[in-house]
Amino acid sequence: MDRPGFMASLVAGGVAGVSVDLILFPLDTIKTRLQSPQGFNKAGGFRGIYAGVPSAAVGSFPNAAAFFITYEYVKWFLHTDSSSYLTPMKHMLAASAGEVVACLIRVPSEVVKQRAQVSASTRTFQIFSNILYEEGIQGLYRGYKSTVLREALWSWRQDHVVDSWQSAVCGAFAGGFAAAVTTPLDVAKTRIMLAKAGSSTANGNVLSALHGVWQSQGLAGLFAGVFPRMAAISLGGFIFLGAYDHTHRLLLEVGRKSP
């Protein structure tokens, strides 16, 4: 990819990611509160639906940029003939690598955001400060393994070639299904991030977190928040594509007019 095209795609991807995160933030808050151990109403119900949005806003663009840069670099590093049967594997490996790197930014943002979502009366910066004071930097990376596992599995079903609205429709259906299937991992991630410091859940063991949810709430607990999650991811594909296309065309047009 040429440098102007690369930069346009990078910025457009970041803008699209921010747009999706901010527009669909209320659905994410509802999902988090449904998955929280204290239950939906005690976690805030429908009150303060934008609690934690500063964390999402700050982390969204660099997270998308980190993914895109890593994805493109690994794809270039594993360069193969475009007609090769290994091409799909190359894209999947590049996407997985991108998620591992992007999670270095996404997880701290997610930890702060989710704690703010279930503690709407507490300011985002105060939550961030409390985590650093009580748990240190490792507290910000609680749930890293479960997040990487969820995102890596998710990335293997994605087609990262943003080309048409027809693909967005297909992607919405596929995304909704994938969102439903990976909901237990999302529940485990939420429980680990929200767990009290020093508790057995806080150690980050995904299987232990899943087992705890199964014992206390059964199948319903493992799929808590599945409907807002499916809705957010299905709608997110359309919002992402619209924002990406518009921003990408605008940046290329500005680049052509520049001397």
UniProtKB/TrEMBL annotation:
- Pfam families referenced in this protein's UniProt entry, alphabetically: Mito_carr (PF00153)
Residue ranges spanning the membrane: these are 6-27, 48-69, 219-244
Catalytic activity from the UniProt record? S-adenosyl-L-homocysteine(out) + S-adenosyl-L-methionine(in) = S-adenosyl-L-homocysteine(in) + S-adenosyl-L-methionine(out)
Which InterPro entries does this chain map to? MCP_dom_sf (IPR023395), MCP_transmembrane (IPR018108)
Taxonomic superkingdom: Eukaryota
Instruction: Pinpoint the residue ranges of every Solcar repeat in the record.
Output: 4-77, 162-250
The way it spans or sits in the membrane comes to: Multi-pass membrane protein
Q: Which GO terms describe its cellular component?
A: mitochondrial inner membrane
Q: Which UniProt keywords apply?
A: Membrane, Mitochondrion, Mitochondrion inner membrane, Repeat, Transmembrane, Transmembrane helix, Transport
Main localization is mitochondrion
Which compartment or compartments is the protein found in? Mitochondrion inner membrane
Q: What does this protein do?
A: Mitochondrial S-adenosyl-L-methionine/S-adenosyl-L-homocysteine antiporter. Mediates the exchange of cytosolic S-adenosyl-L-methionine, the predominant methyl-group donor for macromolecule methylation processes, for mitochondrial S-adenosylhomocysteine(SAH), a by-product of methylation reactions.
For this chain, the family text in UniProt reads: Belongs to the mitochondrial carrier (TC 2.A.29) family.
What name does UniProt use for this protein?
Mitochondrial S-adenosylmethionine carrier protein
Species of origin reads Papio anubis (Olive baboon)
